[in-house]
Amino acid sequence: MLRVTALLLTLFAFTTANAATVMITGASRGIGFEFAKRYAERGWDVIATSRSPADDAEMQALAAEFENVSLETLDVTDLDQIDALAEKLRGTAIDVLINNAGISGGRNTQDFGEIDYTVFDDVMSVNVLGPLKVTEAFLDHVAASDQKKIINISSGEGRLSNVRGARQVFYRASKSALNMVMRNVSLHPDVQAKGVIIGILTPGFVDTDFTSGLPKQIMIDVETSVSRSMAMIDKYDLEMSGRYFANTGDEMTW
Amino acid sequence: MKKIILAALIGLTSASASASTVLVTGSNRGIGLEFVKQYAADGWDVIATSRSPGDDADLQALAAANTNISVEQLDVTDLAEIAALASKYEGTPIDIAINNAGMIGDRKRQTWGDLNRDLFEQMMAVNVFGPLKVTEAFAPHVGASEEKKVVVISSVSGSIASVRGGMPGAPYYSISKAAVNMAMRGTAMGLKEQGIAVAILHPGGVDTRMLRQAFGLSKAEAEANEDFDYRGFSPLTTEDSVAQMRDVIAGLSVERSGDFVQYDGTEMPW
Q1: Of A111, B165, B249, B251, whose CB has the highest number of CB atoms within 10 Å?
Q2: How close is the nearest chain B Cα to the Cα of A60, in Å?
Q3: Which of A170, A185, A254 is closest, CB to CB, to B166?
């Protein structure tokens, strides 16, 4: 009897230890939503954030289906809201924080001759300042976890060494800027002292709302992309921190 | 009679060909002012812009001594001012547009734990959107010129491959320079069709107010402290950096458009 109890206790402890937590920004659609769903299916505790989850039927359905999914309102351009959510979740260890929220700025608003400051400002706020601020605010939550991973969804479009055309200069500049700042963050003394891993990961060319109108034959579906990313996230270690990887595992030049 | 007209035409053409034109933003101090000085001394027509030229005694004195310098007001974050200046110079070919205006920002306001939106937006506007918008507005003038060159003064701080310490002095500055590198590299690909070449230049560590700010001085301290001791670092003089960058600009070709090079022509890693 004692042995059975001990076994049960061990199992219980094991299960509890395994209930890792992931937080995802921009979880209402596309890659972010798929991350939320797949980590929920894996049994993780999922903190799925978006600008307005209350109005989002798909997120509501996901949270209804999985009791391990909690929804939080987070606009990554609202620095006070980021601080408030970090405060609300103080004491919650977050194993994997995925800075996924991002915008493209549209395709016709950043062509030469049409470039518009409002679009520029939005793209830089969401894609660069947002992830930086979220990382700053949630560093302690991640540092308190077992896995200690902050994964930034970058893009091959941010790759300076591989520019062929003039398309989407704001979006591409924002991803170069994100790469720059996350490489900096990975080397920050606080981040290094806490052993937090900073991932800079490209999801591939994925068929989502984000890429609507572009040729589908050269895209991968969102399930494939997220499967690859999750496999990569499982593998991430400090050695890979601050480097630029495709989710297929290939390291890329800046 | 025909011969005389032809000769006159040739004379006119060669005269106008020799008087090239350069536009320099942020030309009231440091590297910008030195570009104005050197190009003017070489006989170029110089359009020297700054946010508030009325306050810029050095630039005004230079312009007073050189009739080939035109001083213009231009805040590179002010879209109406950019449009108005482009319109004022409509029909004037500009051989080289030098996007030099930039800011490093107060280091204390871009540190980990104290991130804020105001300075981020201001720096991205000045260092990234400004050069893009000025380039867009003046591309017709540059395209109509002989040399057809656009330059952006970037920095080694924008080189991701060169990052060593984490969040060093000024992360927003690094972010903005990586971003402007990509923005101008993309733009360079688009401008190739028009025969316009773009140079992304690292000027070196140049003895300017900005470098002293990078070493931790406030703007006011950096302004006052011209004999600052760079703790073992030997900065370039503005004269030397600008003279070398002018050689790089003179050698710029469409084939190498969008490359990132430092003042002496050495290619920089991204």
Answers
A1: B249
A2: 31
A3: A185
Calpha distance A27→A21 (Å, rounded): 15
What's the Cα-to-Cα distance from B239 to each of A134, A219, B97, B245, rounded to whole Å? 43, 51, 19, 10
Name the B residues in 41-80 with CB < 8 Å from any A CB: 79
Give B96-145 as a 3 state SS string: EEEECCCCCCCHHHHCCCCCCHHHHHHHHHHHHHHHHHHHHHHHHHHHCC
B267 touching chain A per CB within 8 A: no
Give percent helix, percent strand, percent coil of chain A, each to the nearest 5.
Answer: 50, 15, 35
Rounded Cα distance, A37 and B41, in Å: 66
Distance CA A3, CA A42 (A): 29
Query: Tens-digit pLDDT profile for chain A (254 aa)?
Result: 555 555 554 445 444 455 899 999 999 999 999 999 999 999 999 999 999 999 999 999 999 999 999 999 999 999 999 999 999 999 999 999 999 999 999 888 888 888 899 999 999 999 999 999 999 999 999 999 999 999 999 999 999 999 988 889 999 999 999 999 999 999 999 999 999 999 999 999 988 887 877 888 889 999 999 999 999 999 999 999 999 999 999 999 99
| Residue entry with tokens 């989407």 | A168
What is the nearest CA distance from B176 to chain A, expressed in angstroms? 7
Residue B270 touches chain A, beta carbons under 8 Å: yes
Domain ranges, ordered by start, for chain B: 97-262
A174 in Cβ contact with A153 (< 8 Å): no
Three-state SS at B200: strand
pLDDT at residue A7, as a whole number: 52
The yes or no reply on domain B97-262 and CATH 3.40.50.720 is yes
Mark yes or no for CB contact A79/B117 under 8 Å. yes
- C-alpha to C-alpha distance for B21 and B45, rounded to whole angstroms: 5
Distance CA B86, CA A79 (A): 37
Q: B167 and A132: CB-CB below 8 Å?
A: no
By the CB < 8 Å criterion, does B190 face chain A?
Answer: yes
* Contact between B175 and A125 using a beta-carbon 8 Å cutoff: no
Place of tokens 């867009």: B136
Interface ipTM = 0.91
Tell me if B180 and A173 make a contact (CB, 8 A cut-off). Answer: yes
Smallest Cα distance from B250 to chain A, Å: 24
Nearest-by-CA chain B residue for A121 = B121
pTM for this entry: 0.92
Q: Which of B79, B113, B132 sits opposite A169 (nearest CB)?
A: B132
Which sign, positive or negative, has the C-alpha torsion B128, B130, B135, B137?
Answer: positive
The share of chain B scoring above pLDDT 90, in percent, equals: 80
Nearest one of A99, A106, A122, A129 to A209, comparing CA atoms: A106
A12: distance to nearest CA of chain B, Å? 38
**pLDDT number for residue B159:** 97
Token pair belonging to B90: 């409509």
